[in-house]
């Protein structure tokens, strides 16, 4: 949720110094907040899945693999769209890759 509150505060301050119409800023804020909520929901799914596996259950790993692929793809797109800003490597690509490794399907 830090993404939603702290990130938006910084972005809103920068937008306030421009001539962004209020409806555009509101739309950006709504999308930003939705992205933050989605990140929390995905985190809950991942944690619940792996807690279940630690307890001996066998919940499917497909949702985790999909989250991993989407994170890596979104990170790659973000790097390209931003002109090569590697900030997105650490925020999306690396976590997605680590999640993909964790969801490799190997049972012990």
Could you explain the architecture of this structure?
This protein is mostly helical and 108 residues long. The protein has two domains: 1-59; 61-108. The protein contains four helices and no strands. The two termini are 33 Å apart.
Topology:
Layout: H1 2-16, H2 22-54, H3 62-81, H4 87-102
Descriptive terms for the model:
108 residues; mainly alpha
**What is the C-alpha radius of gyration, as a whole number of Å?**
17 Å
Total number of β-strand segments? 0
Oligomer: single chain
Low-confidence stretches at least 5 residues in length (pLDDT < 50)? none
Number of continuous helical runs: 4
N-to-C series of helices and strands: HHHH
| Helical content class | over 70%
Largest sheet: none
Structural class: mainly alpha
Percent strand equals under 5%
**Total domains, how many?**
2
How widely separated are the two ends?
33 Å
Rounded mean pLDDT is 93
Write down the overall geometry.
Answer: elongated
What is shown here, in short?
By secondary structure, the protein is mainly α. 78% of the residues lie in helices and 0% in strands. The chain folds into 2 domains: 1-59; 61-108.
């Amino acid at each position: 949720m830090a993404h939603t509150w702290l990130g938006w505060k910084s972005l809103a301050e920068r937008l306030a110094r421009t001539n962004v119409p209020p409806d555009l800023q509101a739309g950006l804020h709504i999308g930003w907040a939705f992205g933050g909520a989605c990140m929390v929901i995905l985190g809950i799914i991942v944690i619940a899945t792996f807690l279940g596996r630690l307890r001996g259950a066998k919940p499917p790993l497909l949702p985790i693999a999909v989250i991993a692929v989407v994170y890596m793809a979104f990170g790659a797109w973000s790097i390209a769209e931003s002109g090569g800003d590697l900030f997105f490597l650490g925020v999306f690509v690396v976590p997605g890759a680590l999640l993909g490794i964790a969801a490799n399907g190997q049972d012990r």
